[in-house]
């Protein structure tokens, strides 16, 4: 299967600060990147979809100015949580997908546990 | 609105038995359905994919069925082992070729030795 690297795995930050999460596809070119968020005992919820070189498309209820997504290259996408608040504490997971692979199995990063104090 | 429900939040079974997990959906016509395993603090790992025109899929000790009339998928693990203990997620994808997945809330399986 595809190799996906997501960093950091855990991060604790103070309220009001920003946190950047990186997601790399190590052995394929990720033309599309999905970012999910998962609260305890809940399902993965899609936050946004980005295509390399384009602006991200955000799901309803997700603030695009708060969750900045950069997908400037085919192997790297970043999610920046700006002005973090305790309610942003969650498990963030990326899922890069290559061209022609949109309707097959999905590969996920290891996830990032964000705790805002 | 679209809704996916997995039958129970937790399922406890004895080692060697067959675990059966259920995924029901409403207001959706998925092109295919997938099952993932998720361990605590980790991202999901793909297990099986079944398309709308398929009734059953098998992989080693895993079996998935897909009934588009009942809008239900069953996921079976035969001869279960303690190492099978994890949370199992079902996910639906539409036919719009976007790659977007809608996940159920998951069922946490505990296999006791």
Summary keywords:
heterodimer, A: 117 residues, mainly beta, four-stranded antiparallel sheet, 0% helix, 46% strand, B: 113 residues, globular
How would you explain this protein's 3D organization?
The complex is a heterodimer of chains A (117) and B (113). Chain A has 117 residues and is an all-beta fold. Chain A contains no helices and ten strands. Chain B has strands at 3-6, 10-14, 19-26, 32-38, 45-51, 56-59, 62-67, 72-77, 86-93, 101-103, 107-112. In chain B, 0% of the residues lie in helices and 57% in strands. In chain B, 32% of the residues are buried. The mean pLDDT of chain B is 92. Chain B is built from no helices and eleven strands. Chain B is globular. With 113 residues, chain B is mainly β. Chains A and B meet through strand 5 and strand 9 of A and strand 4, strand 5, strand 9 and strand 10 of B.
Low-confidence stretches of chain B: none
Shape of chain B: globular
Order of helices and strands of chain A: EEEEEEEEEE
Task: Tell me, briefly, the overall form of chain A.
Answer: globular
Q: On the 0-100 scale, what is the average pLDDT of chain B? A: 92
How many DSSP H or I helices of chain B?
A: 0
Which chains have the largest interface?
A-B, 29 and 26 residues
Number of E-type strands of chain A? 10
Query: How much helicity do the residues of chain B have?
Result: under 10%
Beta-strand percentage range of chain B: over 45%
**Secondary-structure element order of chain B, N to C:** EEEEEEEEEEE
Amino-to-carboxy terminus distance of chain A: 36 Å
**Total helical elements of chain A:** 0
Secondary-structure topology with pairs:
The complex is a heterodimer of chains A (117) and B (113).
Chain A: E1 4-7, E2 10-13, E3 19-25, E4 32-38, E5 45-51, E6 57-58, E7 67-70, E8 76-81, E9 90-97, E10 112-116
Parallel strand pairs in A: 2-10
Antiparallel strand pairs in A: 1-3, 3-8, 4-5, 4-9, 5-6, 7-8, 9-10
Chain B: E1 3-6, E2 10-14, E3 19-26, E4 32-38, E5 45-51, E6 56-59, E7 62-67, E8 72-77, E9 86-93, E10 101-103, E11 107-112
Parallel strand pairs in B: 2-11
Antiparallel strand pairs in B: 1-3, 3-8, 4-5, 4-9, 6-7, 7-8, 9-10, 9-11
């Amino acid at each position: 299967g595809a190799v996906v690297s997501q960093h950091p795995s855990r991060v604790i930050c103070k309220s009001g600060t920003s946190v950047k999460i990186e997601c790399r596809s190590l052995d394929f070119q990720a033309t599309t990147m999905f970012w999910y968020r998962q609260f305890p005992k809940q399902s993965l919820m899609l936050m946004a979809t980005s295509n390399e070189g384009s602006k991200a498309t955000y799901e309803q209820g997700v603030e695009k100015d708060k969750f900045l997504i950069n997908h400037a290259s085919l192997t790297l996408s970043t999610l920046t949580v700006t002005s973090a608040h305790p309610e942003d504490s969650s498990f963030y997971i990326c899922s890069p997908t290559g061209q022609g692979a949109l309707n097959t199995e999905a590969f996920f990063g290891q996830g990032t546990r964000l705790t805002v104090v | 609105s679209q809704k996916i429900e997995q039958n129970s939040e937790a399922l406890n079974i004895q080692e060697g038995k067959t675990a059966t997990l259920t995924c029901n959906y409403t207001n959706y016509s998925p092109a295919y359905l997938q099952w993932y395993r998720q361990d605590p603090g980790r991202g999901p790992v793909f297990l099986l994919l079944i398309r709308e025109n398929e009734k059953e899929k098998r992989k080693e000790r895993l079996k998935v069925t897909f009934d588009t009339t009942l809008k239900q998928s069953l996921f079976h693990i035969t001869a279960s082992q303690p190492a099978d203990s994890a949370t199992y997620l079902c996910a639906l994808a539409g036919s719009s070729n976007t790659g977007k997945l809608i996940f159920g809330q998951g069922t946490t399986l505990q296999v006791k030795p």
